[in-house]
Amino acid sequence: MNEAMQSIIKKFKAIGVTGSAVVTELLRFRVLDQMLQASSEVRQWGITGDKLYELAEQSTVATFGELPYDQAGFETVYGPSFAVEVMDFITETGYVEGIAAGEQWRLPFKEIIEFHKTSEGIILFANIEEYAALAEDILQAIPAERLLLYTSSETCYNLFKQLYPLAPVIDEWPEDVIFDHIVAASTGLFRAPVHIMQELANRVGNITELGTAHYFIPISTIQDQVGMNRMAVQYMLLQPRLQAIREWAPLGTYEFVYTNYSVKKVALEIREVMGETWRSTPFIALPHEVMASMDTFSMVQYALSLCGVEPAMKAQLPTLGEDGFTSKDPKVPLYVQKVFDAFESTRLELERQGTEVQLKLVEHDGHKAGETLDEDAYAELMEQSEAANEEKAYWMFTNPQAAYIWYTYFRSQQGETVLTKLAQMALRPQALLQLMGSVRRNIIKEEPLAELADRFETARAARKAALAKADADWQAEIEAIAKEIVPNPSESD
Does domain 103-297 have CATH number 3.30.460.40? Predict the structure, then answer.
């Protein structure tokens, strides 16, 4: 959390406003500012503090409730509040659930928004609760009469109605309505991925003959291709207008691009985010039917097969992404990531030099599993500055046995080959973590798993002891040899 956010929280706390009430006041101030900007008289002559407070009492109480402070308190927080972006504040603190800023979506959305500046017809932007900070960019770039903004989140719907009263926001996606263009994006932050996939699959063809669609689907639906997820993915793959599929790393999403004509082969690539641009790793295009006939369609598994590595593709086999969470997991809200970091866990830390990758098992200390955080402890956790280990890349497991399994997998000869090939497809550690998440392992029942964990811990302890003894023997031999080399210190008179 940056200094501006920490400062405004303290200022509000000093006047008795905490938690979700802070968000309410930030929204009140934004709406109040919109009123001031709309007044030519205020723009020309300005407004005094007492008149501004009076305006807040008269114009915002119906929407946001009574002001919980007097004029003096109002003046201490009103101005400084504009140093904070509301959506970023919500994302950081978790004071309000069901909405996220989604700044990471700016890069993949950049070309889409630019294209729709000159496209024609009605555009539906779906699941805006996951990219709420981009709503203003969308509303500024595209006329409101060409837009519909859909959210299934009641929190997001109500907030947008308050903040953008003229914006065309809807809380239900009509099943039978045909749009000229559709853009939907989600990593599964607030809804189960299977529900998101059902919704998209049911409406995948709801675009006009000349229309287009960009569906960013949660990567977890690709990793967990069983039941409804499997049917939905297959159905989306078989659409003749499917032009391209892109795995965005480390954004945790697959982009399905539908154009306005039939396509014989689908372009396939991994796009790795590199700051304000992206790097592409393209693969051989495939017909729709070939992709749909795979046991499981996955960019990673297809890429490994092109590299001469036969990947496990049975949908029943668990993936790393189903067993653990990454250090900046896109399917987990930021405030929940902070909570995860506060509890004990076993981590599989990743370091790389070129295509050489090193993995290290680390026991992370923290609160015990099952402990609850009281209100003060939670607030302190949310308000802390950036974590010291922010740059570390790791997989986190609440069950140490899962960490042992995957450490063993990637330290094996076959696992090291897989890891080296994946490292050739992604340059940055966080992106590599995502690609690792699609690798599958055998199903291991509870009793055999406990036995394997015991064997792992025994072998690990024996290795540690052997290394310690080897180091001690080595140092002892050095000291013995040194007696013939290093002169004795001169004795002083």
Answer: no
